[in-house]
Amino acid sequence: MSTRIIDQAANVFADPSAYADEAKLHAALAHLRANAPVSWVDVPGYRPFWAITKHADVMEIERANTLFTNSPRPVLATMEGDDQQAAIGVKTLIHMDDPEHRAVRAIGADWFRPKAMRALKIRIDELARRYVDQMVAAGPECDFVQEVAVNYPLYVIMSMLGMPESDFPLMLKYTQELFGSDDAEMQRSASLEESMAVLLEMFAYFNDMTASRRATPTEDLASAIANATIDGEPLSDIDTVSYYLIIATAGHDTTSAVISGGLHALIENPDQRERLRANMDLMSLATEEMIRWVTPVKEFMRTARADTTIRGVPIAEGESVLLSYASSNRDEDVFGDPFRFDVGRSPNKHNAFGYGVHFCLGAALARMEVNSFFSELVPRLESIELTGDPEHIATIFVGGLKHLPIRYSLTG
To answer: By its UniProt entry, which InterPro entries does this protein fall under (predicted)?
Structure first.
C-alpha cells in the first residue's frame, strides 16, 4: 500500500466545536487546500475516511456518481451513530443511489420545479413581509436567529407539507435537536440514545401523518409522498417517513442558516449592505454569495466502488471520501478573494447545493426564500448593529448561527 497522506489539520472534520469557531475552521481548511488536499483521517470513534478540500476534486467526485456512491455512508457520523441509524433503517434521498434515487426523487420533484416555485412566490413574498413587519413590532432588539430566521423558512416548508401550524414549534424543536446533537445548548442530551430518541419521535409523528393522508388525501406534499407508488407499489413505511424527514429538516434548517449568516455578513460589511440597498438588482447575486458564504451543509460523503485516484492519491475500493463544501466554497483557485463577502460576485460557482444527480431538490425554493426576505428587509433597513457576540452551532454536518443578537431600525 502506498503511504497515506496524513495531516493533523484534517482532524477538524471530526471536531464539532471547530465549526463553532470559523477562524479556527477556515485556517485548518486553507492549510489543507495548500498542503494536503486529499488527506487520510483516522480518529477515535470514527471509521477512517479521506478528506477532500479542493473545489475541483469535490466536483469530480460529484460527477462520478456510479464510481463514488452515497451508500452506505452518506454523511460523517461516529461509528456508534452509523450503526444506530442503520439499525433504525433511516433511508432518505441522501442515502440512495440510482436507479432507486432517481425514482424516489421524482415523487417530490414537481413540487420544487420552476412552475411550482412561481406559484409559491406570492405566498413567500407575503411571509417575508410578515416577518420583517414582526421585526418592526418587536424592535429595536432581537435574537435574529431564534426570533426570525428559524421561523420564516419553517413556515414555508411546513405549509407545503400541509402540517398544522400548531405543530410547527414541535418540528422546530425536533430539527434543532437532530442537527444540534453535537451542541451542548441545542442537543436533548449528550447521550447517543437521546439523539436517536429524537429520530424515533419524528418517525412516530410522520407515521401518523402517513396514515392520515392515506385515509384522507389532501392537496399537499405530504399526501403526494404518502400515496406515491414506484412500479405500482407504495413506498414502505420507513421510506415514506424518511422522505418526510429529509423534506422537513433540510427544507428549513439550511435556509434559516443562510438567512441568519447572510444578515451577519451584511452587518459586518456595511459597504456591501449599502451597495445592495442602492442597487437591489444585485439581489440574485447577493443571494448566491450568502449561500456560498454560509454553506450550511458542511459535508457529504461518498464511498469508492472501485480502486481509483484523486489528485494522484490512490483511493481503494470501499474507502470513503468526505466532500468538504465549507472548504470548496473558499477555494482560492475558483473564487477571487474568497474571504471577501461580495454581493455582486460573478461568476459564483459555489457548490453549496451539491452537484449532479444529488443536486439539492429544494435549491430553487431556498434561493427564492432568501431573495424574498432580503428584498423586503434591505430597503427598509435604516440601521443595524450587533449587541453581543454571534454564536455558531457545534456540528459536523448541517449548521450555522444559533444566536445573532442585533439592534436595528426599520421603516414601517
So the answer is: Cyt_P450, Cyt_P450_B, Cyt_P450_CS, Cyt_P450_sf
Cell of 59: 466536483
The segments of the chain whose pLDDT lies below 70 read: 1-3, 179-192, 194-195
Q: Nearest CA to 125 among 377, 406, 405?
A: 377
Question: Among candidates 63, 73, 111, which has minimal Cα distance to 357?
Answer: 63
CATH number for the region 8-410 comes to 1.10.630.10
**CB-count burial class (<10 Å; 0-12, 13-18, 19+) for 207:** middle
| pLDDT score recorded for residue 188 | 61
Tens of pLDDT, residue by residue over 163-177, are 888 988 888 888 877
What's the distance, Cα to Cα, between the start and end of the chain in Å?
Answer: 67
List C-alpha distances in Å: 373 to 44, 49, 154, 176.
Answer: 42, 39, 13, 22
Nearest to 15, CA basis, from 39, 44, 37: 44
Question: Listing from the earlier edge strand, what are the strands of the sheet with 320-324?
Answer: 38-41, 49-52, 320-324, 299-304, 68-69
In whole angstroms, give the CA distance from residue 98 to residue 357: 9
Taking only the tens place, the pLDDT of each residue in 6-45 is: 899 999 999 999 999 999 999 999 999 999 999 999 999 9
Cα dihedral 102/103/106/108 (nearest 10): -110
Q: Which residue from 259, 261, 251 is spatially nearest to 155, judged by alpha carbons?
A: 251
Let me know if 349 is exposed, middle or buried by CB neighbors in 10 A (0-12, 13-18, 19+).
middle
Per-residue pLDDT, 54? 98
The amino acid at 171: M
pLDDT digits (tens, 9 = 90+) for 89-137: 778 899 999 999 999 999 999 898 888 888 889 999 999 999 999 999 9
Rounded Cα–Cα distance for residues 257 and 18 (Å): 17
Give the residue from 202, 135, 208, 142 showing the smallest Cα distance to 172.
Answer: 202
User: At residue 339, what is the residue type?
Assistant: F
Closest CA to 246 of 90, 359, 133: 90
Decide if 366 contacts 360 (C-beta within 8 A).
yes
259-358-224 Cα angle (round to 5): 80
The ranges assigned to domains in the chain are 8-410
